[in-house]
Amino acid sequence: MVLSAGAKRVHLLSRHTDRPICQGKHNSRILLRMTVGGWTFLSNYGHVLIALAKDPDARMRDIADRVGITERAVQQIVRELVDQGYVFKDKAGRRNRYHIAPHAHLRHELEAGVSLGEFVALLRRPIDRTAPSRASRPVGARVREPADTSDAGPT
Length: 155
Hints:
Strand order of the largest sheet: 1-2-3
Distance between the termini: 61 Å
Low-confidence stretches: 1-34
CATH class of the largest domain: Mainly Alpha
Oligomer: single chain
Number of domains: 2
CATH topology of the largest domain: Arc Repressor Mutant, subunit A
Strand content: 15-25%
Mean pLDDT: 74
Helix content: 25-40%
Order of helices and strands: EEEHHHHEEH
């Protein structure tokens, strides 16, 4: 992915088409810090799954542009997700519509207790930008709760 930053706008460009994958107002320092390493927390399978959940009628080309991989790679991932029962495909004329199997569980033993429905709901949840950022605190730092003074006696 290529990152181009303007004064307040940040565009993530697809490696293959140089078209924006996502654009909008972001904190560019955080976005730069996250993209410089070249890795993400989700694999391409996770990205494709989320893209299908957000837009069940999307074409493979559109998913490929959003994820930043080739259309052929998306086709292979979707085929595997369908074959394994994580995604259902409905044919409507010449188009396909994809549905996530909400009761299927993630594959790795560390996440096996999480269903796809819960996973997708977590990633579709709106971000609360008013809450204090955990990223601004050092790892392992404790948050101090305000002292409760309601039960304090006369001083």
